[in-house]
Structures are given as structure tokens and as C-alpha cells.
Give the backbone structure.
Amino acid sequence: MPRKAYGPPASKGEAFRSLGRVVRMLRGFYPVMLPLTILCILFSAAASSIPAVFVQKVIGDIEVWADTGDWEAAKAVILPKVGLLIVLYVLSIISMTLYQQLIAVMTQGFLNKMRCAMFDGMQTLPIKFFDTHQHGDIMSYYTNDIDTLRQLLSQSLPTLVQAGAIVLFVFTIMIYYSIWLTLVVLGGVVLMMLVSGKLGGGSAKFFVRQQQSVGKMEGYVQEMMNGQKVVQVFCHEEQSQAGFNKLNEQLFNDSYRANAYANALAPIILNIGNILYVVIAAVGGAMLIGHASNFSLSGLALDISIVVPFLNMTKQFTGNLNQLTQQLNAIVMAVAGAERIFKLMDEKPEADDGYVTMVNTTTDAEGNLTETSERTHQWAWKHPHSADGSVTYTPLQGEVTLDDVDFAYEEGKPVLHDVTIFAKPGQKVAFVGATGAGKTTITNLINRFYDIADGKIRYDGININKIKKSDLRRSLGIVLQETNLFTGTVMDNIRYGRLDATDEQCVDAAKLAGADDFITRLPEGYNTMLTGNGSNLSQGQRQLIAIARAAVADPPVMILDEATSSIDTRTEAIVSRGMDALMKGRTVFVIAHRLSTVRNADVIMVLDHGRIIERGSHEALLEKKGTYYQLYTGAFELE
């Protein structure tokens, strides 16, 4: 099935919606802490803007007292103002320290909640999602995309609020003192915005592409790591390197262009601010020399007490505008990351409209089934009837039927055609056929990993669409061709089949599967730690643990998908005895390429291109001398 990766935001509107969603979630997680942080930031911004007013007042006072020379009287006026300014700066430091701590708590807490929400949601996704997305790209959501949100929350958004507030405060003060000089500053701001729009737009486009390229490259690296043995066995190192180089080159180009735009933006904006500082000095000086009238909200005449602080305000104004433009790239990256994360979180969970559940039962004196909370190994299907509110119990026997089933992974590309199967309780049904014939697909449909396009699948006479998926899968034990072991002890991995199983039950399951012998010879026996998907075990040993895991689950129906494919002939003989005991009294579906493993099956289904072309026992099919006979005698290969 085709793999796909999520792309960037489709439009500016979608980008703003993603950013707004992040802010709304942050507000929902921290309804008190977020407003308090914003208040601290605004107070700090105001404290950074007010010194211009103090400078104007102090210079004005100095001008007044310079003519009289009474500096003692001047100090009595000036020193309290300086003292008040020092108090403001101290409060600003306290405010900055507080909001930095609050931001650290909120940022890490938000990321923690987001990762939990992502992972919880991922557990509900259908198998189709993981079949159609690169696993490395999925991992990128938890690393690169989450990290862009960290930078957004810990740096970009606080800087936006603080720098934006300072720009607003300083602009208000500038208008209050001189509208003429403010208009000169605005002329420089317009030039800044034009440059920022040109360079920032190009930077944003390539930062979004960079996020995509990172996901693709991580997906490729993950695939190559998983298949490193295959790469080396077939001497595919050069081709593998070439594929990596191509993706890495694309990432380099996107990152280079994004950062080239971004790195050019900051010095250009900074130097425009420096030029604007010189222009304000020149214009202010010219107005002072020419005794130009001042136009302001304050009504003050233009003098040195206004021009000097205006220069500082210009520097502060343009400097904070520069900070705002520098955060655009981080915001764009965060929006791209948020868009990918939200698309993952918004993926529709696996639909489950089933209402029939599997329960433990006992039989009363009259032979009726009664539900019990104790594990009795006497299972039944609990079927509530909405019409009259009654509940009926159907014994779980393991009868599985497929009636005229059609299925396609992709529309227009059918995989199964009119498949009809009758598996009676306790029967062993085997599927044989070439790769791609549809054998594993049938077992995927029985598990409802995918839903059929047409036909019916019934379990003990109940349409499986009516059975809750969790209960359906709990009734099915499955051993896959690809074994997955988790980080933990051998005992933990066996108990994965049934979490409430005791150590004794896990050991019994291992003995049943023929795994106890090699487990007891491990350095710490059942307490031996397994890591890296059981890389310290052989493939056959890993498969034996997987079989033991299915055995401890003790389900009424077993699905064995090439369960002994990785086991040598001698070990297979050991396992077969355990498998026979495991399969006793259960309905079993077996997929095998080794025809010797299905000789004792009650029914053998021969599939070809999604159709059952032959069915019957081993002896009956040999007598027909059809496809199965040719496969068994080696007239042609399964593949």
C-alpha cells in the first residue's frame, strides 16, 4: 500500500487556525497560569518603555535648573525620579524571572500533554494508517514537530507579546511627544515591512519544506536501519547511500534557502534601524536649529529634552520590530509542525459500532448460561437486544464463516473475490497459495483490521460487525510471521498475551510452545531482559516466545501466519507437539508455505489471485491432481 507523509498547511487561513488552536489548547490547560504570565510580560514591557519618559523629565529638569545653578534643589527633584526608575527596574527583573519560570512550566507541561494525546489517539487508529505511513515519519511527529512547538511556546510567543507590547507602548509615547518625528520613524518602518515581507515570505516557504524533508529523511533512515542486514547481504550499500544522499541533499537545499533568507533578514532590518536612528538625529537637529514648531499630543515645544529620548525610543522601537521579524521563521516552522501534529490527532479513530461482548459464564442447574466476573474459560457472546431490553448468551464455540466476501485495500484493485469459507468449531483450516494470493488478508478481515466491501463474516452465527472489536480480537490468538518483542523480561513478553496471567501460567505456556528449554538456559532465565526487539535471541527463539504469548492468552480461535517459518526442522518437530496441544479443541487458521505443516489440516484452501480454486483434505486434494498436487509434488513453486 502507498506510503504518505503529511504536508504543510494548505493556506494562510489554515496556518492561523493551527496557531489559534495551539493557543486555545494552552489556555485550556493553564487557565490561570497563562493570564498571569501575560500580565508579567506586559508589566516587564511597560517597565522597559517608561525610561524614555523619565529621561525627558530629567533632561527638562536639568535645563530648568541649569540657568539658576541651584543643583541642590535640582537633586531634590531628580533623585526621587531616578529612585522610582530603579524600583521599576527591580520589579521588572522580578516580573521577568517569574514569567520565565511560568513559561518553562507551561511549555514542558503542554508538550507532555500533547505527546500523551498524540500517543493515546494513535492507539485508536486503524491498522490501515500504519500500513500507509512511514514509521520514521510518524516518529518525526514526536521529535521534530513537537520541538517546533517547544520553541514557539518558550521563545516565539513570549517574544511576540513582549516585543509587540514594547512597540505599542513606545509608539504611543512617541506620538505623545512628537508626531512629526514619529512620521519619520513610520517611514522607516514601512521600508522594514516591505523587506520583511519579501524575505520572510521566501523563508517561510522553505522552512515548511524543511519540516517535510526532515520527516522523509527520518522515514528513510528508519527503513534502512530495520533492513541493514538485507542491505549488507545484497551489497546494496551504495544504492542505500545514494537514496540517503538524495533526501539529505533535498533537506540541505530547503534548510539552506530557509536560513539564507532568515539570516539575511535580521542584519538588513537592524541596519535599516541604524540608518533610521541617524535620520531621526539629523531631522531632530535640523528642527531644533530651525526652531520648528512641534506637533504633539503633549503640547510641549520641541527641544533637546524631546529629541534625545526620541533617539533612544527609535532604537528601542526598531530593535523590537527586528525581534518580531526574527520570530516569524520559528512561528512558520511551528505552524508547519502543529499542522502535522493536528492532522495526526484528527485522524479518525478506528470505527467500532459493535455491541456484542465476550464474557465468562457458568452453567446453572437448568443448563442456562450465567455471566460471571471470574475467569472460567467458558466463554459466551453477550448479545443485548434493544427492542425489548433482553440479553441472550451464545456459547463461544469458534465457528467462523465467510460468505461471498469481496475486499480491496484500494478502490478498484480487488484482492479477494467471492471467498466462502466454513470453519467448524475445533477444525484446522489451512491456506496455501502464492505470495499475494490473499491468505493473510483473510485473517486480517477475521480480526477486522479492515472491513469487507461485500459479503458477510460470521462468528458463531453473529455478524462480526456486531461484535466489539476489542472482544473479537480477545477471542482470537494470533502468531505472525514477523515477531515483535518489547523491551522487558522474557516473562513480561510472554505475559503480554494476558496481563493477568501468573508466572506459573506463563511458564506452562512456554513449555507448551517448546520455549522453556532455551529460556531456562538464558543468563537470567525468565528474568532475562530483552531489548531491540529481542536482538539477543535467534529468530527461532523469538518466534517460540511469540507462540508462548499466544498460548498464555488461551483463546478459542488461533491464527498462525507462517508461525514456524523461522524455526529449523528439528525445532519445528519440538514446536509441533506443543502446537498440537495448543490447537486441540480450538478452531485454527494456518497460513503456511511449508506444505508439510498443513498435511493434518481438516480443510486446505488453495488460493490464487484472491480466489479459492481448490478445497479439501490433504489426501482428497492429492487425488484431484490439481494445483495443490502440483505444489506438493514440486511441479511448480508457490511463488
Notes: The radius of gyration is 36 Å.
